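[Solved] Which block belongs to which protein?

Original post:
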Amino acid sequence: MGLSKCSLEMLQEMGLRSVEELFADIPREVRTNGLKLPDGMSELELRRELESMLAVNKTANSRPCFLGAGIYNHFIPAAVRTIVGRSEFITSYTPYQPEISQGMLQALFEYQSYMAELTAMDVVNSSMYDASTALGEAVLMSSRIGGGKEFLVSGAVSPEKREVARLYAKGAGIKLVDVGYDRSTGTVDLGDLRSKLTPEASGFYFESPNFFGALEGRAKEIRETLGQKTMVVGVNPMSLALLRPPGEMGADIVIGDAQVFGAPMSLGGPTVGLFGCRSEHVRKMPGRIIGMTADIEGRTAFCMTLQTREQHIRRSKATSNICSNEALVALGAAAYLAVVGKTGLREIASKNVRNMRDLSSRISKIPGFRAPHFSSPHFNEFVVTSDRKASDIDRALLSKGIQGGLVLGRHFPELGEAALYATTEMHTRKDHDRLVEALEAVR
């Protein structure tokens, strides 16, 4: 067959005289007589073809998705994706050499500053893998602060998060003790907390909003109950645009997941674990802290101020063996907050609350359904209980192109036929209509 001028030039560059020489090492019996390829397309035609092929995929935008439970579908401004995708950020690793890492160091410093302001904590590190590992590290840090071989955890916490924390605690010989939740409000059962608060307990972890989406209204009483023991509070950072920050509630340690700020759901990760504490505990904090300083010429500069990891100090002095972190996701969170601003963040958080109230109210009007199941105020997530089997409802919704809530029976059998639904600013009135109509049809 004839060769193009380009092909001939390539053969000449390789020092070959023919295609036969190029394929001399391939046995003739396995060679093909050319490939039947379609004609080439223009870029626009190819784009349309690919979009048509991808249209069969089921995404959070093509089918309403009401899953939450720690990973949420929020709008990500194009500017955030552009910043995160820049080569100097997406290819960078731990900035060991500050003289060539000022961009990443400053971005991480800004992330810490944003998170410290939102949580009202003195210090925030940069960062943990996710909220689950942040809780595990908080359990260990609580023991370093106050001693003791027990740590109390609210029952209204993600089962996966509890299991990760339990694994962290096991190696340190720390026992995790579950504290029940009030079956009416879905928040901490203060009586159960008091009964389990032994001298061996180093601290207590609870969330607001918690796994059920319920807001804890008795943080002050919890603080008084704990006395000098460590109070660890879990947060959804998005909610802090509207709610009183945990630092003002007396929290010693704050954890959470900043996935809500500019990171996609991505089948559950990667995310970025938020971890903050009071200044008096900073030497016991895991991970690393980026600080602002000045160079020898007096110019503003950034460096790793505290890095109590095994790689940098003696093993016996290390507070964590974390080898890396989710710095790129943390950078994305900083970019997101810079783009939306204080007013924009409040508007987004408010939209989440309005959507929750609207959707839960509409579901509660369907015969056989109750939403929200708990009486406490909620942020953007709530439990729905029903007279019908929750797994059957989930399958019926899927058949109609709707991803319903997370079925809770496996981990919370005491709730009966229940599912956890989440709604964000990404859901439209039409999305809510489709869900409500589908629930009415399957009751």
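(Second protein starts here: sequence line, then its structure tokens.)
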Amino acid sequence: MANVAKKNHEPLLHIVKRDDMNTWQAWLVRIAAILVGFLVIGLMSSFMTKMSLGEVYNIMFRGTFGRLLEGKTTLLWRYLQQTSILLCLALAVTPAFRMRFWNCGAEGQALIGGLAAMVCMIEIGDAVPSGVLIAIIAVSSILAGAVWGLIPALFQAHYKTNETLFTLMMNYVATQIVAYYVYITGSGSGIIQPVKTGNLPLLFGQKYLLNIVIVAVLTIVLYIYMKYSKHGYEITVAGESQNTARYIGINVKKVIIRTMMISGAICGIAGMLLVAGTDHSINTNTVGGQGFTAIMISWLGQFNPFIMTAMAGLVTFLETGAAKIADTCFLNSSYADIVSGIVILLVVGCEFFIRYSIKLRHSKKGGATA
């Protein structure tokens, strides 16, 4: 009898997949998670700095957006620039992720795209007209990023290599190439002074506006491409099942190679925007780890470019605002990462409860607890 009871014993908790939560309910849960996250970081910051919640949020807001009521918009434009670059990198990895190709090489692909732009700016900056130079920079950056995405795609498609490790290693190769170029160009100083030729033009007198517009256009184009084009359909099918894709006549190897070239090309655009549109120089930290943050943005945005836009804005606000608090109150520089990590953890955690429910074991009639 004891063996039978042990055999029939059920776990106390059951994880059951939900099928009854509406879209609007799911979004209410996500919004609630973000609000709870802001409350938690507000209380934590208040405890560590001895400031009120209002003062904490005020520092975060002003540190990110500046004094908008006084007409000072410099920080706002910088925030939009940072958000657009992060979004651009998230857009880049999305087609690959949708295909279940784990492209962790956005950092290196953007860096190589930026290097291509820098080489054009330095080597042929004075030899061609400004408009022609910018066109050459754009084409060079896109091709460089595409090639850097093509290399791991070829090996995965033909030799089944591990794309995660391959793309991660390509990041280090790109970093060392940039480090060598900076060393020889900077005459051993390790610094390339801002280059005046080949800079992207100002739009309405604003340095960052063109970058923001380009990324906004990319967001719309990628959404249409993924949702309504034949290529987008092939990416989705290949991601669900490569065997099914082959059965209905899709050339999976071709899809892998084409998709990774697109992913790398968009990273190349991000690198061009950073080098030719923002810094006018390059170093090994030009991308600044945003290629890895973009992976998280793509997943949190559920591969939807418009949701990813909101998530990129949220993460940028958290990192910038928390960094301002750390700077104002002399906290550790890791404080910004901790703050953004808390909110992201809550957002990721709420996705579990949106998709699954936890049910307790109940008693059966006429018998003991099962």
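Accepted answer:
You had them paired correctly. Confirming on the second one: Confidence is low (pLDDT under 50) at residues 365-370.
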